[in-house]
Each structure stands twice: as C-alpha cells, then as structure tokens.
Amino acid sequence: MKRQPQDDGNNTIDILLVDDIQDARDGIQRLLSFEQDFRVVGTASNGREGVALAQEHQPDIVIMDINMPDMDGLEAASRITKALPFVGVIMMSVQDDPDYMQRAMLAGARFFLSKPPSTDQLYNTIRTVYAQYAPIRAQMERFKDAAFAPIVEEEKEATAGDRA
Description:
Elements: E1 13-18, H1 22-32, E2 38-44, H2 47-57, E3 61-65, H3 73-83, E4 88-93, H4 98-106, E5 111-114, H5 119-132, H6 134-163
Parallel strand pairs: 1-2, 1-3, 3-4, 4-5
Helix pairs in contact: 2-3
C-alpha cells in the first residue's frame, strides 16, 4: 500500500519510528502526539521491519536508533535512503560519539540526535529535515506525474478511436 498524499490544508509530517526498545518508541510517539502537524504512521522494533514499513508507508521522516538487533540502523538507513530518496532519516543513539555521527551521515541520515533528545530539539529537527526534503518530494511528484501522463493520453486516444 503506497502512501497517498494527504491534502488536509496543513503540512502533516508522516513519521516512522524505529527502535528496538518499546519504551523509547512509546516515549517518542507520546511526545509527537502533542503536535498537530506530526502523525506517526508506524513503529518498528528493528531495522529490517523499519525498511519494510518505510517502503509500505513512504513516510516523510524516519526516526531510527542506531543499535538494534537483526539489522542495525546504519544498514536500514542506507537501504531506505537508496530506495526512497525523498524520506529524511534522523538517527538517534545514546552514544554521542563523532564516529557514530559520521557513520550515520554516510549511511544517508540527515541528522543525528543524542538520546533522549529534548522535546524542542526533537520537534525542531523533524521540521527542519522535513523542510529540507521539500524540493526532493516536489521533484518526485513531478516525475510521477510525468511518468503517468503519456499513458493517460494514449488511453484517451484509444478510447476516442474506438468510438469513431
């Protein structure tokens, strides 16, 4: 099921949460629920689930822990950003290590937050990354529209020719 753009008059930011610790996912989700422009579209407990849910829901933002079982956040971020270049990945870790930050950025993450982030830092980071990806989302929409336009035109011509 591909995500349908929501046209509700405001820019709702669809967010996927990926963290192996249930309490961490619940805490972030609770914080996000206080903001009207945020909507959590899914949660995952490891990188493999996160990749699958990102492909299914095509969120605007993925907030992901680095250290997880099965598939870590670095590998998952790399896969998500390659398959869905319009999705902004925000990495989180309890380890505030420059090496981790560098590895997260090389994997495709747009921002790195230390756990636990402050509420303002979390909100501002989400909105900043969302705004930074606006041109990419717009370009993807144009590509999608251009890809389907010739098919629609050919279909109309064939239908018109059948009636004549």
